[in-house]
């Protein structure tokens, strides 16, 4: 028996897109992320996943950016075994199980109520796991999370779906609530007219769903968030186009990805950013 997803709002359903992309990657002979938990979750949900029309390029990029974020969280909890991990817009992501942090680490999954309620039904229980059912537009979303331990906040595929005031408030709130830590997330370097045109040109449901939920067009200069909050300091800007895992992409996509990494403008269209506070 599968679980219904009819209760999910359109913005909550965007979590199913990245979930399915990770599941598809796990089915490949040589996966980039290898998230078999994602495939297990997909099997439990009543949803037309094939109807999304998820392209190979999306699978590759989704898996690679998740791996890069996992690596950064893994490094942080190794350096700070008493850390708190906060997964912003966690959806049904199984990053906790992939990273497998020390037992002294607490992991908080923050997302909207309906998707948060679905999480414990499709993923195994874990004593380090804590679900925070809240909107990130609510200033109190961070209240249940400890503030006095080293904290890394990660966000995968989140900020484009939030309004700019909400994004700015998150960037300011991380350093007022949490004592010390890092904020790391994937970024598109600014969503311009080419990206918006692609939404209209491609018929896949995936593009229509994502395009209808865009809330923030992003920024080009990675230091721009420092103008929102002087307590934040950019410590990393890493383009997916230059990662060794790109060699696992299909030949045509591997070539296109490497070529896009040759200029700063195109390389920033798929990047991981990290800020320390």
TrEMBL record:
Q: Which domain of life is it from?
A: Bacteria
Key word Membrane present: no
One GO term (biological process):
methylation
Keywords tagged on the record: Methyltransferase, Transferase
Pfam families referenced in this protein's UniProt entry, alphabetically:
LCM (PF04072)
Can the keyword rRNA processing be found in this entry's annotation?
A: no
Task: Please list the GO terms describing molecular function.
Answer: methyltransferase activity
Which InterPro entries does this UniProt record tie to the protein? Ppm1/Ppm2/Tcmp, TcmP-like
Q: Please name the PANTHER family in this protein's record.
A: S-ADENOSYL-L-METHIONINE-DEPENDENT METHYLTRANSFERASE YKTD-RELATED (PTHR43619), S-ADENOSYL-L-METHIONINE-DEPENDENT METHYLTRANSFERASES SUPERFAMILY PROTEIN (PTHR43619:SF2)
Name the chain's protein: Class I SAM-dependent methyltransferase
Source species, please?
Answer: [Mycobacterium] fortunisiensis
């Amino acid at each position: 028996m599968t679980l219904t997803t009819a209760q999910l709002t359109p913005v909550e359903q965007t979590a199913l897109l990245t979930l399915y992309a990770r599941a598809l990657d796990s089915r490949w002979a040589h996966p980039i992320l290898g998230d078999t938990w994602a495939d297990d979750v997909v099997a439990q949900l009543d949803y037309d996943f094939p109807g999304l029309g998820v392209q190979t390029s999306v699978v590759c990029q989704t898996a690679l950016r998740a791996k890069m974020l996992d690596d950064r969280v893994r490094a942080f909890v190794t350096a700070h075994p008493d850390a708190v991990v906060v997964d912003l817009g966690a959806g049904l992501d199984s990053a906790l199980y992939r990273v497998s942090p020390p037992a002294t680490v607490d992991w908080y999954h923050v997302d909207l109520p309906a998707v948060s309620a679905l999480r414990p039904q499709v993923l195994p229980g874990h004593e380090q796991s804590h679900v925070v059912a809240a909107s990130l537009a609510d200033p109190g979303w961070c209240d249940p999370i400890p503030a006095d331990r080293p904290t890394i906040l990660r966000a995968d595929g989140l900020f484009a779906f939030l309004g700019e005031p909400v994004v700015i408030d998150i960037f300011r709130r991380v350093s007022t609530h949490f004592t010390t830590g890092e904020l790391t997330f994937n970024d598109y370097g600014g969503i311009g007219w080419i990206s918006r045109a692609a939404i209209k040109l491609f018929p896949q449901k995936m593009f229509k769903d994502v395009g209808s939920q865009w809330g923030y067009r992003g920024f080009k200069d990675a230091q721009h968030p420092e103008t929102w909050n002087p307590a934040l300091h950019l410590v990393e800007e890493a383009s997916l186009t230059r990662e060794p895992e790109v060699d696992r992409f299909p030949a045509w996509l591997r070539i296109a990805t490497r070529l896009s990494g040759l200029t700063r403008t195109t390389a920033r269209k798929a990047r991981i950013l990290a800020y320390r506070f």
